[in-house]
Design brief:
Layout lengths: L1 H24 L8 E3 L2 E6 L2 H12 L6 H5 L5 E4 L3 E2 L23 E3 L4 E3 L2 E3 L8 E2 L2 E4 L2 E3 L2 E3 L2 E3 L9 E2 L3 E4 L1
Parallel strand pairs: 2-3, 3-5, 4-6, 5-10, 6-11, 7-12, 8-13, 9-14
Antiparallel strand pairs: 1-2
């Protein structure tokens, strides 16, 4: 009986250490933080991480195809519930929200967490804007809960804006 208890304790110690390492490996850095299912993921644990991830996806670094669209396919995993109101900023949708040329094509794993108090306010009056947590989306969003969502838009006459809770435009 003692031998079985020691084996169980060693197994539990191993599992606790392994999960701690995975948790550590999973704050948004300049490179993906962890690999899961053969994909590299950025971990998002705070409101600022979510804002930084949106900026990383939406930022074009040059004129070549990979510089313009290279970040559109990066992956993310939520590590905690996020109250977006703590950022004190108007959230910019993940994935280009003014054209469909730079859509988010990665995997966003909500990991069962909640994004709450998300506010997206469009002030571009020329129309044709895509508003949601994701502006334009061709990738996948899994295991995510969005709660207390507010979206506003100003549109020019004769122009359409596309609005959705998860994505303004799903391709």
């Amino acid at each position: 009986m003692i031998c079985k208890a020691l084996t169980f304790n060693k197994l539990m110690t191993f599992l606790v250490c392994w999960f701690a390492l995975v948790g550590e490996a999973l704050a948004l850095s300049s490179t993906p933080d962890t690999t899961f299912g053969g994909k590299s993921y950025y971990k998002i644990a705070t409101c600022q991480d979510l804002v930084d991830f949106s900026k990383k996806v939406n930022t074009n670094t040059g004129t070549s195809y990979s510089q313009k669209y290279g970040n559109a396919g990066i992956n993310a995993i939520l590590m905690a519930d996020i109250d977006v109101s703590t950022c004190n900023t108007n959230f910019t949708p993940i994935g280009n929200y003014t054209t469909t040329s730079n859509v988010y094509s990665g995997t966003f794993n909500g990991n069962g967490h909640v994004i709450s108090k998300l506010k997206v306010a469009n002030t571009i009056t020329s129309g044709g804007v895509y508003i949601g947590l994701f502006g334009c989306l061709t990738g996948s969003v899994d295991n995510l809960i969005i709660y207390d969502l507010t979206m506003t838009t100003e549109t020019a006459t004769g122009k359409d804006d596309f609005v959705g809770g998860i994505a303004g435009y799903l391709n």
